[in-house]
Amino acid sequence: MNRKDLDPESSPAAAFGERLRRMRDERGWTQDELGERMGFSGTHISAVETGRRPPTLHFAASADKACGTGELFQRHSRSVRHTALLEGFPEYLAHEGKAAEIRLYEVGVVPGLLQIPEYARVLAESDVKRGAITADQAEERIALVAERQATLDRAPAPLVLIVLDESCIRRPIGDAAIMDAQFKRLVEFADLPNTVVQIAPFDMGARRPFSLPVTVLTLADRSLVSYAESSQQGHLERESTFVLRTLTTYHQLQAEALSQAASVAMIEQLRKGTP
Question: Domain extents for the chain?
C-alpha cells in the first residue's frame, strides 16, 4: 500500500495527521476500521492523515473516543483550527473558557467577546482584502467569535469587566446599521448582572495606563493569568508578581474611566447620532 510520507513540522494539519496515523498503526487498524469506529469514511480518515483535510472539533472528539486518548486530539485540533490567530492566543483561549473573572481592555475595535457577527465579518473580510489572511481563515475567525461568546454562558457565569478605549466606539466598522446593532449589543451586555462595561474617554490623555490591549484572568483556583499582544505576537504571562502589577494598573484604569452609567449614556448618544 502506498503511504504518503508526512512531515509533522510542515504544518499543524500535518502534525495532527501524523499523530492520528501513528495511533491507528499502534492499534493495527486500517483507515476503514478506524473510520467505522469514529463514524467517518476511510477516505475521510485518509484525507486528515495526509493533511489534506483539517480536523473539525467533532472529528477530534471522535478520534479521542475511538483511541481512548482523553482529550489529546481535541487539544491538538485547536492548533490546526486556529491557524489565523496570533501565537499565544489559542493557549489563552483555553484559560478564558474556564476563567472565573475576565478583565479586558481594548483599543480601536470592539473586542471579540462583544462583537456581533456582522461586525466580526467586516473586520475579517477587510483582512482578506489586505492579503493578511485567507478566506478560510476569515471564516475561522468569525466562528471563533461565536465560540468564545458561547463559553460565557456557563454556570457559574464569569464576572466580566471590560474597559473600552473611546476609539472602540468612535471608529465606524461597516455601515450605520451594523454600528447601531453593535451599540445595542454593548448596552445589553452592560445590563447583565455579571458584567461591567466602561469607556476610557480620549480626555484621559496621559492618565491612560495601557497603550495596547490587555486581559487579566482570574482562574477557578484564584490564580492569575495575563495576556497582551502586539501586531505580531501574543504573550501569556503566569508569573504572579508581573500579573499582580498588571492587575493593579487595570484597577487604576477602571477608577479613571467613565462609570458604567456614563459609558452607556455615551454609547446611546452615538446611536442617536449625537457627537
Answer: 12-81, 89-110+153-271
